[in-house]
Amino acid sequence: MTASATSTAGGLASVFAFLSIIPVRPGGRAAESDSAHTGLYGAARSMHLFPVAGCVIGLLAGLLAWVLLAVAGLEPLLAGLVTAAALLVITGLHHTDGLADFADGLMARGTRSRRRDAMKDKSTGTAGTAAIVLCVAGLIITISMLGGGGDDGGLRIVVGLVLAEVAAKFSMVVMAYVGRPAPGGGSGSIFAEAMKDGRKVAASAAITVPILVILGGLVPGLAVLAVCVLAPAAMAGLAGRSFGGVTGDVFGAANDIVRIASLAVFVSL
Fold it and tell me: Model-level pTM?
């Protein structure tokens, strides 16, 4: 393998290790230097590859949903429940925890510093709990709607979940590019600082756009693309006003919000 191919493989391994519980092992120099940070810096350097991981995660969840619908004959709502649970497990509930912290921070009163402290609080508040409930319920409903459309429901649910996961992962790339790091460092700062290179964003877009348009069709694909660009940009602006910049929790919230929004758009179109 060439040095470039080896670097890309190592970057993908770091990305999968960070975004999922899929048993991969980051390799190469990145792993050696990042061992104390569980590959965080390696994942940040290869953040433009996030949509690739999203494609694989969405495909795994979609195939499970297809088996539940077409082979096991489950009702769409039950298939949606099992698939949503599996998807959250595959991603290690990492982003859902960020969504809860983001909601708690937004609802906290006081200065930006106090809002950031509310996000760091290990206990989940009322706003965070409500956000998790709405997130999980929305995920179950939209997945079940994808699978409830007749004979092509199995195929549509696979396509929809792939599109949603690719869009969710690309939304974090967009947020890292347009958002400024919040004071105090943290994982959000690492990713935001690593993705200020427009060439990496362009490379990530070159992965994302064909997947969305070819699999989803021109109009639905472009609609989902609009969601995964506009939503994180708006959230980055909101985070700047509320917290002074983006944090790791804001990235996690963007992932879960864009996933559900993309599923809803695809279902509607």
Answer: 0.90
